[in-house]
């Protein structure tokens, strides 16, 4: 697919746009010359009448479409004709419409919920845990972490635990403040930055793999005129290019506004986990649902038994013992997620609620950001960017108008001659 680079203010017109303008204008001039030649030769042969009719109608069609295309971006010939210079006069409305399109198709909680129903998050996690990429390095790193934790615990207390008490202890434990404190500590030491980087890269890969969904959505919602002129494909390209640029900017700029919003959201989540009763209740409810699931309970009890048997061996030789054990535990969790539909539903429900909550909390802010950004652009900047982006395709309208107009004029002349 050809690149549709967004031109900056002051950029010269792209060579492809200049070339298509010359072709469209050259065709119009050629029709004018052909009309003059045919008019001068009208008495020589009757066939020149058909040529004159074609050229005359082609000039009318070409001029009409030149006026229509030019009127989008400026006043034709500098004349202040009403309903021309449409883009400059409606810059703010264009920004509001683009923001509304983004909101109505991507950021409404009901839309997010409907699309999240088609995504099996738990199954994807299960497949990753059952067969993760770079398995050895991941498992060994996690094994060393678990071994360090086990070595730091009171072995007598840990050894006195029984497997039947494990679920009860977890049930009574208020884990929300612990999660909040851990998240606070991670943010304070900037340990969350690699996670944000990985998330942004994942978003970029996901966007690249699902570009066709955006194209299909724009094509389905575009009007017949936009589809006929190919503007729906151009709009889809602009949306996709803009999203790719947004993801790239977030990956490269630690101070990007959306990245700062994400960090603010993490800080707010850490605070809510510790002090917000509603959030703590949600976490408690989710924990209870997970513990009440029979498959999850069996997994917890089995993991505890294996942990108890392998504890001393793990402390003595973490690389040899824990790599195999911890890998088995992760693989078992992944297989459980793939096989247990009830557990998958619970996790998917949580993921759906989280996505819907994010859309509800931050959707309006993103919409305002898009609208305010377009409103803040200089009128000349907006006009130049849009014209450089879609102007090449609009020149095809001029060419088609010239040729179609000529054919219609020729057809009318033939009918008039026959009658």
From TrEMBL:
Keyword Chaperone appears in the UniProt entry? no
Keyword entries, A-Z: Membrane, Transmembrane, Transmembrane helix
- Name the domain of life: Bacteria
Q: Which GO terms describe its cellular component?
A: plasma membrane
Which chain regions cross the lipid bilayer? 20-38, 50-73
Lyase listed as a keyword: no
Kindly provide the name given to this protein in its UniProt entry.
DUF445 domain-containing protein
> What's the source species for this entry?
Stakelama marina
């Amino acid at each position: 697919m050809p690149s549709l680079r967004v031109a900056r203010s002051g950029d010269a017109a792209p060579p492809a746009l200049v070339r298509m303008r010359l072709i469209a204008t050259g065709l119009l001039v050629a029709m004018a010359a052909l009309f003059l030649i045919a008019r001068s030769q009208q008495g020589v042969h009757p066939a020149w009448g058909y040529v004159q009719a074609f050229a005359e109608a082609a000039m009318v069609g070409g001029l009409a479409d030149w006026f229509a295309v030019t009127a989008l971006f400026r006043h034709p010939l500098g004349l202040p004709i009403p309903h021309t210079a449409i883009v400059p006069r409606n810059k703010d409305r264009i920004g509001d419409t683009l923001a509304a399109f983004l909101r109505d198709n991507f950021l409404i909680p009901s839309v997010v919920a409907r699309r999240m129903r088609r995504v099996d998050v738990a199954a994807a996690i299960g497949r990753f845990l059952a067969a993760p990429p770079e398995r050895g390095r991941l498992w060994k790193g996690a094994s060393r972490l678990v071994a360090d934790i086990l070595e730091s615990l009171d072995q007598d207390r840990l050894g006195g635990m029984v497997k039947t008490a494990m679920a009860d202890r977890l049930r009574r434990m208020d884990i929300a403040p612990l999660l909040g404190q851990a998240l606070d500590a991670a943010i304070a030491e900037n340990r969350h930055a690699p996670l944000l980087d990985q998330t942004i890269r994942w978003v970029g890969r996901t966007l690249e793999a699902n570009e066709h969904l955006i194209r299909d959505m724009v094509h389905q919602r575009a009007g017949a005129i936009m589809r006929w002129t190919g503007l729906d494909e151009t709009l889809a390209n602009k949306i996709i290019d803009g999203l790719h640029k947004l993801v790239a900017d977030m990956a490269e700029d630690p101070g990007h506004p959306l990245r700062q919003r994400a960090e603010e959201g993490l800080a707010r989540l850490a605070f809510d986990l510790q002090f917000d009763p509603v959030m703590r209740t949600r976490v408690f409810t989710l924990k209870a649902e997970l513990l009440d699931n029979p498959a999850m309970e069996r997994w917890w009890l089995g993991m505890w038994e294996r942990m108890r048997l392998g504890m001393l061996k793990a402390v003595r030789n973490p690389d040899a013992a824990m790599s195999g054990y911890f890998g088995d535990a992760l693989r078992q969790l992944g297989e459980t997620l793939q096989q247990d539909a009830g557990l998958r539903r619970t996790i998917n429900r949580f993921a759906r609620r989280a996505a819907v909550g994010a859309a509800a909390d931050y959707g309006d802010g993103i919409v305002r950001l898009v609208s305010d950004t377009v409103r803040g652009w200089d009128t000349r900047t907006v006009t130049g960017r849009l014209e450089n982006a879609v102007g090449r395709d609009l020149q095809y309208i001029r060419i088609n108008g010239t040729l179609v107009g000529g054919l219609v004029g020729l057809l009318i002349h033939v009918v008039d001659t026959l009658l």
